[in-house]
Amino acid sequence: MLSALFSALLLLALLQPAAAREERRITANGTEFAYVEAGRGDALFLVHGGLQDYRMWEPLLASLPDGPELLRDQGVRLGPARQAFLAGDDARAVPLFVDGVRGAGSFQRMSEAERAMALANAPSHRADQISTRPRAPFACDTARSIRAPVLLTGGAESPAFFRRILDALEGCLESARRATVAGASHNVPGDEPRAFAAAVRDFVGSH
């Protein structure tokens, strides 16, 4: 998934108010992505997680810089959740997955809108979970080919294996900055939106 997402980060243009934003689609390396645009100027790409879509960024837009154009992509693996997906039981699989990556009880603590978004994205996530075709590896050499500045954000309370992923990416990317947000678990923008927005503003302001 990472390789497909990174390969889809293309420069696009904007500019309607939030109420009029149009969902658009683009194909990159044989994969179709849905996206919406906001802002103007240099592009800032916001990539969501597995059970989310571009709606996760809506509450943050007012806190992010006005300058960059924002492209929000429409865009870990845990045994019990995968088994539930294999059984076709999305209603059970989604809470298991969320709790697995964000901590016990996380799904119930999500807002109604967040839970609805996660469940709406279950079919695509199920397809990924039960696929028999392995993803192409996203190796260090692939990361080094990314020349654009990259902000890596992680929560201080995030599971250790996510921190190890960020460690590896930080060492491979040519131009990366890392921000660890106190009080956040895996979903940094949702857990600590103000701190996340501040990290993005600082990152954008330095480039």
Characterization of this structure:
There is one protein chain. The chain has 207 residues and is α/β, with parallel strands linked by helices. It has helices spanning 2-7, 79-86, 90-102, 106-109, 112-120, 122-130, 140-144, 160-172, 188-191, 193-205; strands at residues 24-28, 31-38, 43-47, 69-73, 150-155, 176-181. It folds into three domains: 1-75, no CATH class; 79-130, no CATH class; 139-207, no CATH class. Strands 1-2-4-3 form a four-stranded mixed β-sheet. Strand 5, helix 8 and strand 6 (176-181) form a beta-alpha-beta unit. The longest helix has 13 residues, at 90-102. The radius of gyration is 17 Å and the shape is globular. The model is unreliable at 1-20 and 70-77 (pLDDT under 50).
- Estimate the mean pLDDT confidence: 75
Radius of gyration (Å): 17 Å
Query: Which spans of ≥5 residues are poorly predicted at pLDDT below 50?
Result: 1-20, 70-77
Instruction: Indicate the proportion of strand residues.
Output: 15-25%
**What is the structural class?**
alpha/beta
Gap from first CA to last CA: 27 Å
